[in-house]
Write a structure and sequence with these properties.
The complex is a heterodimer of chains A (114) and B (115). Chain A is mainly β and 114 residues long. In chain A, 0% of the residues lie in helices and 54% in strands. The radius of gyration of chain A is 13 Å and the shape is globular. Chain B has 115 residues and is mainly beta. In chain B, the strands form three sheets. In chain B, strands 2, 5, 6, 10, 11 and 12 form a six-stranded mixed β-sheet that branches. In chain B, strands 3-9-8-7 form a four-stranded antiparallel β-sheet, with no helix packed on it. Chain B is globular. Classes of the chains: A mainly beta (114), B mainly beta (115).
Amino acid sequence: DAGVIQSPRHEVTEMGQEVTLRCKPISGHDYLFWYRQTMMRGLELLIYFNNNVPIDDSGMPEDRFSAKMPNASFSTLKIQPSEPRDSAVYFCASSLQSVNREAFFGQGTRLTVV
Amino acid sequence: AQKVTQAQTEISVVEKEDVTLDCVYETRDTTYYLFWYKQPPSGELVFLIRRNSFDEQNEISGRYSWNFQKSTSSFNFTITASQVVDSAVYFCALSRDSGTYKYIFGTGTRLKVLA
C-alpha cells in the first residue's frame, strides 16, 4: 500500500483565502484523523472520523475549519477564511482500530498563511 | 483526564552513546495503548511501537528497546549505540481502548546525535 497520501505538501496562501487540504487514507482503514502541529501547541487532534462519520470535532479551533469524508478513500480539511495563525503542519492519519490500532501518518501539509 | 509527559525537551549525545527517552502517562483507564513515533528532519511521523496495557514485557528491536512499567506509569525508549540517523523528534502517545480512540501526544523530545 502507498500509505496515507496528503496533498498538497506545501501551501502558501494569502490571509482571507480558502484553503483545502486533502487526504487519502490507507485502504481498509476505518479511522481517519486530522492533526495540526505547531511549535507552540505541539500535535493536537482536530477531528477524527470512523467509517466516514465525524466522531469528535472538539479540537476544531473555530467555525472557519471544516472537515468532510465523503467516502472511505478521501477526506478534506477546509479553512475559510484563512488567517496567519493557521500556519502549521497539518497531518492526516488513518488506522484500523479493530486490529492494529497504530495510526499511520501522511507526510503532512505545511500551510503558510501570509 | 489523559496526559502524556515527556519532560526532556532536547537531548544531545555523541554517536555510539546509549540514550533513554522518558515518557510518563496519566490515565484512569485499565485498558489503553501506548505508542512511540519518530519525526525525522524531513517531517513525517513514523510509527515505532505499540504496547497495550496488559503487556508489560519489555521489547527489543535492533538498537531500540522499550521499558513499560505500569507501576510508575512510564514507557521509556532506549536507543543503544546511537547513530546520527537517529537524530529526530520522538513522540510518545496514549490511546484509549474504547470510546474515543484519539491519540494524546506528548510534547516530544528532540534527540541530537553528534558525529
